[in-house]
## 1
Amino acid sequence: MVSRIGKEIEISPVELASQIAKKVKINLASGTPDPKKIPLNDIREAYTEVIEEYGAKVLFYPGAGGQEELIQEIDKKFLNLLGITKRKDEKIVITSGAQHALELIGKYFLENDVIAVENPTFIETFNSLKLRSSSIVPISLDYDGLNVDELEDILKIVKIKLLYTIPNCHNPAGVNISECRRKRLVELAEKYDFYIIEDDPYRPIAGEVPPPIKNFDTSGRVIYVSSFSKIIAPGLRIGFIIANEQISEKISLLEQLDFSTSTINQYVVARLIRKGMIEERSKELFRYYGEKMKILIDSLRENGLNEFDPPKCGFFLLLNLNKNSWDVFYKAVEKGLSFVPAKPFFIRGGETMARLSISVASPEQIVEGVKILSDILAR
Amino acid sequence: MVSRIGKEIEISPVELASQIAKKVKINLASGTPDPKKIPLNDIREAYTEVIEEYGAKVLFYPGAGGQEELIQEIDKKFLNLLGITKRKDEKIVITSGAQHALELIGKYFLENDVIAVENPTFIETFNSLKLRSSSIVPISLDYDGLNVDELEDILKIVKIKLLYTIPNCHNPAGVNISECRRKRLVELAEKYDFYIIEDDPYRPIAGEVPPPIKNFDTSGRVIYVSSFSKIIAPGLRIGFIIANEQISEKISLLEQLDFSTSTINQYVVARLIRKGMIEERSKELFRYYGEKMKILIDSLRENGLNEFDPPKCGFFLLLNLNKNSWDVFYKAVEKGLSFVPAKPFFIRGGETMARLSISVASPEQIVEGVKILSDILAR
């Protein structure tokens, strides 16, 4: 007999589809940032520079909560660039990417509690919360993001501990929550006494999006999660949390249980921020991925595939195939195309939905992939 | 209301003493490897080399379970060098250091179970297990390590889920478990149906020590934990687990919850193993720390402080001060010396014990530190 988490953990369906995807020509499955856009030279130089400047210090054990040098750079520069307001009673805690942040938040808050989540949601990050909750309340999404009216109807009858949301460039739905809904979410959190986990890894490459939900929060009900995976590189495993003092303090202590955030990688990210890399890449990557997304949207429409909300940013578009998406998936793989059948992202429904990603595919591959998909669906 | 772990987590007493220690001249508190011995140039070169050789691949998301390149180097070279036998039904899982390994193991196995542990033990790593157990059975240590007779007496009346042990260069007790006791531990695990977590971070710098407990195991009851923190550098956060297929598979899956192990750092460690750095440093560091330990032992004896088991390896010596160690600690800090009052390492007793570390102090500082301690005790 093992723990509940030990019993219930299983291979992520996204991982499974990605493994199959590796074997095909056209990859519309993977959600990893485009390898062509990883700033290899800058990263290589940053490693050399931090070792030369700081010496052995960059290779000591990490302090729980994160290295002060990185916290300062985020506080001085990165938050400002992203339009994130940090209140005086809030602190930054460095984590090993957003996924680690979610695991720490889940570990801190949850012990068989009721939580609410967008339907669909990104199951991989959500898993840390799911495996520690007793029951999950799914809330519909539309083009303006999470349906706040539906949420309030549910809150009137169900007490929740927290709500998990991806406000920008939603994975897998590709939508952004509108500004007025963001305000409303904070009001609901106040009124019905729950916390909001705002998982916002795409903001650094999202272009013009509404302010973070946490900017509307005055009482510490929003825990903001960010990451350098999209704007720099996922292999560094650096992200952060902003939360009120009590929560950030406790989450720092919980980091003592895994001590997993590489010290030198924190210095490397601090260095890259200091050198102005983020400003530069933020616009460039928004433009780069935006162009690929436009190609996907145009191709789908040209092929008469119209059942989707056109994303304004990010990597993902959620398409209704009107057929079982696993059936379509296996046919697509035979033709050299992969995507992610989106059922696993849904708490309920979603059997005919497909997540298409533009992150690693070239423009030509996107066009060809849509053609393959359209041919399969036409039969 | 938060989770049990969220409620019970508190600042590590070792961290607290270390923070005070930073402000004094002579640091016999810190357990961090000597900064002078971190191979900065080799590490800097390895970062450059892996980026040049593999390109963007080293900066992708890490695969759950670890990068194949590192697993291969450990399997082909590192285990052999350390005298670790891996059975065919066992697998290596890469972690963000040994601490992360312990967190994953705790998360997998424990949900309010009874566990056994050496008294004293290293409270920081043990915390991941402690916070998930209902009750902790302390087992005495002597110069030959964990007292197996006492353990069996307890096993006759108490059912335990697992035993946590540090077999070599024990932290804080400085002892090694004898070979016959290692065999006996495996027999007991079989007979009384429990798992053994063998936390062995010091083996790479331990010189000649008995074979790992896991070498005597034939049925997958031992989970072996290792780390590159002492032999290379802690700031990379790379360690690993060896466990039977079922457990290693599940622990790989649990890594999907935090995805915290830096991809590029795994390639860097693989590169350093391949270049033969480990063989070279293994002997050199054993000699280096051994000389400092000898100075500590000789100084203590010269000053009439004899109540300790002389360590054969590692960083730590556990000294009985015969006075409340916190009282002595505060007086020592006033005189410019720090150590760790060892009470927090004990499940029971230990009020008069002090952990002295030779890892970062110079030979002169060790001699001076013992003189200060002896003066305080003589008063």
## 2
Amino acid sequence: MTMKHNTIVFSIIVATGMLLIFGCHKSTCSKISVNENSIKAVILAKEYAVLTRWYNGDPMGFIENSWDDVTYFDPSLISRIDSINAFRKILEPIKGLIHIPSHKMDKTQVSIFGEIAILTFTDVFSAGNKTARWHATEIYLQRGNDWKLIHSHWTESKVQY
Amino acid sequence: MTMKHNTIVFSIIVATGMLLIFGCHKSTCSKISVNENSIKAVILAKEYAVLTRWYNGDPMGFIENSWDDVTYFDPSLISRIDSINAFRKILEPIKGLIHIPSHKMDKTQVSIFGEIAILTFTDVFSAGNKTARWHATEIYLQRGNDWKLIHSHWTESKVQY
């Protein structure tokens, strides 16, 4: 190959790289969009599976779905839980205690920003003669090919109806 | 310049770009670390300023510190607040109502993942003869040169001491 040829080939490689990094052709954009939708589907499926286990007395789905450096808040805590070991410690005592036949993830929203996906929703279920509503902020982080929780925050709604 | 010269200059530009995108020289890494620390400082200062206004009867600091598509949870809500207009609507009625002389942001942690910064802490203050503790997850998103809230979640701790 000549120097001119080398320069042209090199320019094409760089231009393609720049296109991938800074912009996208219509077909590339569609691929990104399809990819975003598949990430959203994966995250919703993961959360649903964890909650199904939770309502059947098995809280450990949350541990399997969390990174080692996960942090966690709920109204029963005096301050933030830092690390998966501390998270495991508060979940173990409730093994086998919760049995709720059905629940609904209401108003789910997943927003993706690079390696972070923010899932928010309100989980709704019947508890005795009232309807309980728990607001959830589940922040998933991608490491390698997997998405797991890096932070989780749950709040019970005080609104009764 | 000759074609050879052009190619060399072009290669240096591309190599520098690749270094910035995919890796870093020791001095570059230090700059990234310094930059991360300055982002953390900016976010903590923003949150502290908003809370200082909040405890002095001015909740509108939250509006100025939020993007238009902010979402929000607290225990008083039946479901998630979507958009700054809906957020403004729930904050306006409490203008002038809250007067707390001092508070403390306890156990602050800021984690940065690209354009997302996750600030978590427990805000502690005296309310009558008890100590109130509110857990906060404040997710900041960078757009242009500014960082503002894209999602906010607050929970009152039930632990009394």
## 3
Amino acid sequence: MCLPGTVETVRERIETEGLPRLDRRAALLGAAGAALAAALPAAARGRSGAGATSVQDLTHLFFEGFPTFGPPSPAREDYATYGVNGFYSQTWTFHEHSGTHMDAPGHFIPGKRLTPDIPVSDLIAPLAVIDIRRKAARNPDAMVEVSDIRKYERAHGAIPAGALVAMDSGWAAKVENSDAFKGGAAFPNYHFPGFSSDAAMFLAEERNVRAIGVDTLSLDPGNSSTFDVHVNFLGTNRYGVENLANLGSVPPAGATVYVGVIPWEEGSGGPLRAFATW
Amino acid sequence: MCLPGTVETVRERIETEGLPRLDRRAALLGAAGAALAAALPAAARGRSGAGATSVQDLTHLFFEGFPTFGPPSPAREDYATYGVNGFYSQTWTFHEHSGTHMDAPGHFIPGKRLTPDIPVSDLIAPLAVIDIRRKAARNPDAMVEVSDIRKYERAHGAIPAGALVAMDSGWAAKVENSDAFKGGAAFPNYHFPGFSSDAAMFLAEERNVRAIGVDTLSLDPGNSSTFDVHVNFLGTNRYGVENLANLGSVPPAGATVYVGVIPWEEGSGGPLRAFATW
């Protein structure tokens, strides 16, 4: 906005009074640890039994040019600048399936839930992280299979009902290199890991999970042209999360994930902020 | 995206196989209550001493035409439709200060933190809600004053360090009527409640809060042309949240707020999903 008087009043205050008050950043940051411990609810679940004092961001920077399944990538431009307007801000344009984002059930299936239909109680869930980094490093077409889920449960216990089950393929580290992240120049020649439809439907039907998540561009592996997981899993009215980050920095079991999706009007999903506490 | 084969493969699957699998929505929703109780961490803080089993969304629907301080309002258009593309999605264009959103410290003050500079540990905070609905109903220029904070603390105890302190003026109910929400056709003729600069700086300097929030369009009251709270409070490198919803549905003290702001690249703030648990 370029509003009459705004530039002059704000700039004049800064010029005549200097930058206002004491910069309390150091004090604020110094208090952050204690304040976090005070703010974080204690974990009743989880293996430690101790208070939840850890938090991990699971979200990529939402940057201009973020790799997307198809064009366009997110774009931004200045809306206002300090010098011209007295304040600074940007305008954004992007497809809903950009950055760390949700696939709502209605993304593929008419009549299923769109983003605002998913209540906040569905956005807080036990987090289970299935690590397939070793096989994905050998084969970019690797999938989370039912056998990976059973192996996970032998090591970490049963996946709780209502969980969000996330694949950690190691792909998050590639996000700044679009070709590496996609494993190919353009669809249908992508190669990156995803869920097998059998594994996704096992989680829906046998474990009654709330959602699945991946650290890649798609719930399906990149070489899929039939999008079975999108059709079948979203078809159960459950949601997915794509392009998760930092899954290697949370415990495989016992954390709680918060899926802070913006309630985009009639959204087919859309950008979100996810973090985990434990 | 209009990718070769996508429409055909997905549509063909639906046409030949029908909508996939059993619609498990009813089962999912039936399990939601128990799953939420399992997912939500127990509250070590809070007045009840019992487990945290309540959650409240504090976010407005992000809708086309959402009232903004200045033009433009958020806009959306179809990117893909089921019939043409085999899936559905949208493209969005908006100014960062749309919907329920953050004002990052760098929105007004050069060199202060932008959205991605704010760590996730700063996005989880004890929530204190100061109710000024009675005086705001009589006077749309009402402000949260230091006396309101002292009155709150006599009733609910000291505001904890690191808190997010939110004003509940009752304005959230007006959001679908832009003129009523703004209290005037255009700046500088707005009338809606906000914080007084003295109150905001009391919270920064005497209570070391992490952030302030409002259920109106601006941290400052609508009739401000000097934006004192933006200049002074954001100048301490603390952030603000605007257009919060449902503040009357959370306890005045004892809840924890999660500020799920998208980490917009070089963001001056931006849309977020906020919710509270207690």
## 4
Amino acid sequence: MSSKVPVAVLGATGAVGQRFISLMENHPWFEVKVLTASERSEGKRYIDAVNWVVPGEIPENAGDLEIRTSDTGESLGDDVKLVFSALPTENAKEIEPALAAKGYLVCSNASAYRMDPLVPLLIPEINPDHVHLIEAQRAQRDWPGLLIAAPNCAVTGIVFPMRALHDAFGVTQMHAVTMQAISGAGYPGVASFDILDNVIPYIKGEEDKVENEPRKLLGRLRDGAIEEAEITISAQTNRVPVMDGHMGVLSIKLGRKARIEEVIEALDSWEAPAAVRDLPSTPERAMVLRREPDRPQSRRDRDVGNGMTISVGRVQECPLLDVKLVSLVHNTLRGAAGGALQNAEWLVASGYLGEIVPETVATAAAR
Amino acid sequence: MSSKVPVAVLGATGAVGQRFISLMENHPWFEVKVLTASERSEGKRYIDAVNWVVPGEIPENAGDLEIRTSDTGESLGDDVKLVFSALPTENAKEIEPALAAKGYLVCSNASAYRMDPLVPLLIPEINPDHVHLIEAQRAQRDWPGLLIAAPNCAVTGIVFPMRALHDAFGVTQMHAVTMQAISGAGYPGVASFDILDNVIPYIKGEEDKVENEPRKLLGRLRDGAIEEAEITISAQTNRVPVMDGHMGVLSIKLGRKARIEEVIEALDSWEAPAAVRDLPSTPERAMVLRREPDRPQSRRDRDVGNGMTISVGRVQECPLLDVKLVSLVHNTLRGAAGGALQNAEWLVASGYLGEIVPETVATAAAR
Amino acid sequence: MSSKVPVAVLGATGAVGQRFISLMENHPWFEVKVLTASERSEGKRYIDAVNWVVPGEIPENAGDLEIRTSDTGESLGDDVKLVFSALPTENAKEIEPALAAKGYLVCSNASAYRMDPLVPLLIPEINPDHVHLIEAQRAQRDWPGLLIAAPNCAVTGIVFPMRALHDAFGVTQMHAVTMQAISGAGYPGVASFDILDNVIPYIKGEEDKVENEPRKLLGRLRDGAIEEAEITISAQTNRVPVMDGHMGVLSIKLGRKARIEEVIEALDSWEAPAAVRDLPSTPERAMVLRREPDRPQSRRDRDVGNGMTISVGRVQECPLLDVKLVSLVHNTLRGAAGGALQNAEWLVASGYLGEIVPETVATAAAR
Amino acid sequence: MSSKVPVAVLGATGAVGQRFISLMENHPWFEVKVLTASERSEGKRYIDAVNWVVPGEIPENAGDLEIRTSDTGESLGDDVKLVFSALPTENAKEIEPALAAKGYLVCSNASAYRMDPLVPLLIPEINPDHVHLIEAQRAQRDWPGLLIAAPNCAVTGIVFPMRALHDAFGVTQMHAVTMQAISGAGYPGVASFDILDNVIPYIKGEEDKVENEPRKLLGRLRDGAIEEAEITISAQTNRVPVMDGHMGVLSIKLGRKARIEEVIEALDSWEAPAAVRDLPSTPERAMVLRREPDRPQSRRDRDVGNGMTISVGRVQECPLLDVKLVSLVHNTLRGAAGGALQNAEWLVASGYLGEIVPETVATAAAR
């Protein structure tokens, strides 16, 4: 028996699916065993079906896997219980709950169920306890499996400084303008004809996500339900000609007044909850504060902590609300595949994988 | 005698200086006769001294001019009274008032005196009456000449929708995030090493300008002084890898509540004051409202109206303030040389050039 | 009766189709009357069906036209005889000859029939007499209409300096490396995910075209057939992150030795044949020679002559062959829609449109 | 006593100097102890003087070093004998031989002495024996130290496939067109105003280097002198808007005819000499052959082997010479600091550092 948890990646030929496979090439706990894609690719070897667009080469073991269809049937086989979904939203809508109903543990990167009241919207450093919403999910949905979701990529970058400030002072209002990388649109995604030497002040559906998901992420799990944080958010989202890295330009109103030095101190001293610090994908520092006037920058800071560290900076008093700052996230690592992978690690450490976890992994997760 | 007003361009070898020369190649009223630059270029023919970086070729008449120094001496000669300044701020500080004191009429693009209480900060479509602040300037400074300034390039784009909304409903607060083109930093300006595949969330001194200049532009001339508009502005300014075009992402609080349809109508129906519409550099439409969800865009909309038309769009209700929208300006045309040139035209039409205006121009300006 | 020739544009919703429509907005001879696209768009107003991606707004008259299908049926109506084809190659293959067989005069930008021995591959400045290959085409194909083709966009830029050198010294060998803009791939074309911060050393099918089309263009029409020029060409074609402008980096072996000054003189003094100089789309100078060490450049020189002028430069001795130089073409203007439009003008001036030409146009063309 | 060789970096604040420092952060043999820069920075801590532009953070030990001047005096102190030069050419010209004359072992990245007949121009995988030209250098220059040079960044990428083909078939002619990244121009280097959305067909002095340096690199050391390889090269060098990675587009004439399969096999099977394979900076594979039609690509392949592996591909028959191919090098790693660092490692392994090598390093180098 292998010493790792076998996993499936749904939507494996897309850009996020590729990132999942790339990140799990040498993962200490997980091993990719099943890949699915649209019918067009069914039956092909992965290496023959995929147009590999992420950095590095196709991991050898994944390259030889035969692609199955991303449908709701029995196609995932008997060995795999843990499933990463990089499905398009419309497909995720149908497939993800169907798989949970069949007993699969689904860690999704899709937007379909993020705001579902019974689905944990999870970032281990931000709201680790929300994982227990699974109890209510199981009770009410009667699923032998489960479904958890990772938030939108732009939201992921923004919610880290929000968390630190919410803990310290409360956050009641936020104005958020984003400058988002083209990789956020997947592959082929944004046409170069549209974005070279250009800014597009529109990303379909994105403003809604930025205005709503942080409220759930910063909410409280109480009596089997999430009470959303009472924060009013106004978002304007933009596409810029940058490869990776979503920059959030934020202006925040605090629950109680604070001097700018206190705000800086709160951001600088914030740390992820101890329980999640040893997960394999948790970076050494969840968030770093830059004090140079011109940082963080998309290209220069997106790769910090293997793309899992959020960089914030330019903290200033705001003449309108209380504090202005910027926050940068690597959108396809922390903001997509890396985040969903870390969520699965948190599932393991929280005991939700039960007997399918090999002893070595169980021991490591229990450290 | 020539039928055009002879003019000088100070700082003629820089990117804005080049735009001035390019825009006046076939100007109906003005003709470039004197060029100045730093000592290094003194005595050289313009064509030999300049590294021409703006579109098109060096206009023939300018290419042959001998460069003079941008100092405060007699170097501009006797023929020229009207002067366009594209000087760096530190040089403008000393040279511009010295020239005004000698009788020159200085139309500046520099930031040095924009917030000087006796210097009109002018956009003909926005605050044409501010030109009469010159009366107070002359009275108090005892200058035989005069000095007027064009606003910052990012401010120029933002202040058009502000004007329309201020007229209709009053504007009391604004949150402004900008995404600014690299041409705004002049030449050589931003290193490609810094900006390729990157966003830099910092432009030195820019946030102050965006927070202050609109207050003066939208203020009232009363008793020989500008009463600034009481608008609180919070600005965050960013550099993006775009050649030309500054995008302002705005969220605005109105003096009185208005439905979003009224706001849209106010923007759509706003027109420049009739008196300035026939200036040679005034575009057919000062501001156009785009109704597509993804416009304006920097590359696709910056050249509208020969780069003199402001494009606004994405008008939406704002959950925090009242209305969100974006506004785009061509930063080196409307936002720099084109704006300063139009200011000079307004000086002519307002009668400030007196006898130095040839009769044909005077007639045209009087239409 | 209108004073212009009514025309149809096939494949009107694509990027080249849009350029055709844009260029004919104020064309003195032609007027767009019929637009076709794929079945998906059939019956829609053009303005509702098109994702307009080229500069400027959709011309009003075109916006209101109802789209017909690009099939081979009677859908073009009775009024139109002159047809511009911006069809994808696979569609062009079937549709273009079918239309010629029905009596339409087809000016194609597609690659399908460029190397057909009976189809003129035409650039008016380069090989105006090839238009008469139409005689052989009509004789052998028995078409009441006709079909002519414009060359590949990269070829168009390269063949101008080749023509000048071939005329002066003969050209026997050429090594050509291209750096091609993303607009050459149409819309959506190249994914930004693929080309931002990247060079792709491959464009499908392009090297064949660069190695073959110049031989036909520089060939001789003799006895109703083109004798290809005996020039051996080796091509390597690359995609670079540039919006418009294909740069050809050439190394050329001449038929007889020439000093570099003679080569420069031959390039500088070359002029388009007098007969084609008055066509509406012929630029003032077909080719300009730049003498600066760092010109032409893609962004700075592509728009010369409204994008119809070829810019060459960096003429040097070549240690291997005889002469090295670079040549730049605006690939979607001169190299696509603009070139095909000029071909149609040459058809008119050559008398091939017969009675469908209004008298005013006939008179103008006869100048 | 430290277990590493203490080294100095000259020109430490420039982009290449930064790369040296970054690469030696955890180098097993070398430790940065002395940094020099221009007088402006003298006496400052490195962290206060440098505008750090390369990836990652400033290594801690380097950040605290006090900068000395890059002059020829005693400023390097007594502890350091091994010196890396990232000086501008004009400074290198004077300083490098002066240091060699004082007993320093100078590994240069500058172009000043690359073609000096007594200075080894070295790439360990390409011409490891050229290091022994040092014997002649010492004999004739009477230097107690020594001076070796790394080749031009574009040359470095090109010479690997040349080496493989020269070994197998002989190479007699080469046509080389390059598409070079902006980082090759150092910092600030190329203005974004010049290169965004542009190709510049000119890099000062570069074509000479590409035409000459490979002849020396592939030459033979015989009787204390390098006999250059008899290869005629024609180069055309271009700047493209890419961050890192120089692409060489090559067409090569072989000494004896070979089928394309043999050429491919020769490239695929070529390996670096065994003696240099264990140097710390030698990558696992010195050169990889890509068989996809569209690889290598600048962004996707530059980082292979930590930026030390050359990627070649698109091997095809050439209608003019014999074989066409492209070759990609990471210009600031393999092509600059990484290459010069590996040269120093080869000096160590070749015994040229003598007693200044700690025993642990000597042992490692002797493996």
